[in-house]
Amino acid sequence: MKKQETGMHLRERRQRVHEIVLALIQGQKDLELVDPEAPSFDGTTRNSTKENDPARWLERNRRILKQYQSLVRSAITLDALIDSEHCEP
What is the three-class DSSP state of 89? Predict the structure, then answer.
């Protein structure tokens, strides 16, 4: 396979995986978003939420990232399965 064909194949695969990830996300009921605002480490509060504790904030964001990683891995696996079924004679 030529370099240009390989690049095009990778772009097409990335697009398919992206579409599968979006479909998986749409199927999620309570998908949380990562909280971009870090808690203050000097003891002052920026907001009145219970997520002010740095350890809780880090743990929550870690858990959310793991959930997204799982969705991406599932999408990659589904794409590979679809690709293998498509390539079989």
Answer: coil
Torsion of CA 58, 59, 61, 65, to 10 degrees: 130
Biggest CA-to-CA distance, the chain: 65
What tens digit of pLDDT does each residue of 22-70 get? 999 999 998 999 888 877 666 555 554 555 788 888 999 999 999 999 9
Contact assessment for residue 19 and residue 72, using Cβ atoms and an 8 Å cutoff:
no
Taking the whole predicted model, whether its pTM rises above 0.70 is answered as yes
CA 9 – CA 4 distance, rounded (Å): 9
Q: What is the dihedral of CA 43, 46, 50, 53, to 10 degrees?
A: -40
Nearest to 19 by CA among 84, 79, 87: 79
Which amino acid, one-letter code, is at 86? H
Alpha-carbon Rg for the chain in angstroms: 19
